[in-house]
Structure formats: C-alpha cells, structure tokens
Amino acid sequence: MTATIAEPVTFEYRSFAVNPARASLARDTYASFGWFPDAPGTSVTPSLQVTLNMKRDRHIKNRPVIAELQRRAETALAAVDKLERRMTTKAMAVALTVGLVGAGLLAGSVFTFMAAIWAPFVILGVLGLACWVVPFFAYKAIRATTTATLTPLVNEQYDTIYDACEQAQQLLS
C-alpha cells in the first residue's frame, strides 16, 4: 500500500474591520475575491466595528488583477460608510444647535422670572420652548433632503462594488 502525499495548500490570512450594518455585504464582497471565513469567525471591537477573519488560497489565478479589484471594492465600501454618515451629520448638528439655543433661552427666561421681569420672561420662555420643538422637524426635513441628494452617490458606490465582484468572479472561475 502506497501513501500519496497531498500537495500542501498555503493560505493567506487577513482580518477586515467593517461596519456592523454592512458586515454581510462585506462578507459576500470578500467571498467574490476568493476569501472565505476562517474558523474563529467574527468579533466586535470596542470601536463598534466587526472584524471578519478571512483566508484564501495564496495561489489564486490572476492575483494582481484580483488585488486591484479588491482595493476598488474596499474603497467603495468605505465611501458608502462615509456617505451614510453624511446623511445624518448635518441634520444632527442643526438639531443639536437649535436645541442648545432653546436651552439658553429657557435659562434666560428663568433668570428673568427670578428677577420679576415679566415681559422678557414670557418672550424668552416661548422662544426657548419653540427651539425645543423645531429640531425634531428640522432634523427630519434636512435628513430627507440630504438623503435624496446622496442616495444616487451611494447607489453608484454599490454598483462599483458589484462590478468589481463580478469581474473577480469571472477571473477566479
């Protein structure tokens, strides 16, 4: 009986830190480039990112082209994260600013109440309460307009990811 020696398979290992909301997309994207999950699986780092532990065969076909396509997809994934954050950043900043102005106006109202100055007390109190109500509607309106302008850019980045994955799959098969 003769024993046959199998040709060794060498792997390259890499950990990818991704946004938890897009962990499935990242996992599928990296699978298109020949990566598959390593045994330990995923872990959550303190910075609220998911770490995907992946490995792939070091001897894949068309490795330089696959690496370039992977870099393009990673850049598009990062752009999607950045664009998604931009959708709420401006709206949140405006809402917080108006709310803080309202808090300042209400503080002024309390001080004028304590000084028994009634006209400024009422005016500052009404303006302060209005500044606490307005941020809710301002946030929704600003987020809607920002989302409407950024959604085509996000979709363009998703198309870049899908195109890179399709090209990589064709090169690997």
The percent of residues in helical segments reads 55-70%
Going across the biggest sheet, name each strand in turn: 1-3-2
SS-based structural class? Answer: alpha+beta
Tell me, rounded to a whole number, the average pLDDT.
Answer: 89
Strand content is 5-15%
Number of domains: 2
The main sheet comes to: 3 strands, antiparallel
* Number of strand elements: 3
Number of helices: 3
Unreliable stretches covering 5 or more consecutive residues: none
Q: Give me the Rg, rounded.
A: 27 Å
SSE succession: EHEEHH
- The CA-CA distance between the termini, in Å, is 36 Å
Shape: elongated
What attributes characterize this protein structure?
alpha+beta, 173 residues, elongated, 3-stranded antiparallel β-sheet
Explain the overall architecture.
By secondary structure, the protein is an alpha+beta fold. The protein folds into two domains: 1-59, no CATH class; 61-173, no CATH class. It is 68% helix and 14% strand. The chain has three helices and three strands. The protein has a three-stranded antiparallel beta sheet with strand order 1-3-2, with helices on one face. A hairpin with a 5-residue loop joins strand 2 and strand 3. Helix 2 (63-114) packs antiparallel against helix 3. The mean pLDDT is 89.
Explain briefly what this protein structure is.
Helices cover 68% and strands 14% of the residues. The protein is α+β, with helices and mostly antiparallel strands and 173 residues long. The protein folds into two domains: 1-59, no CATH class; 61-173, no CATH class.
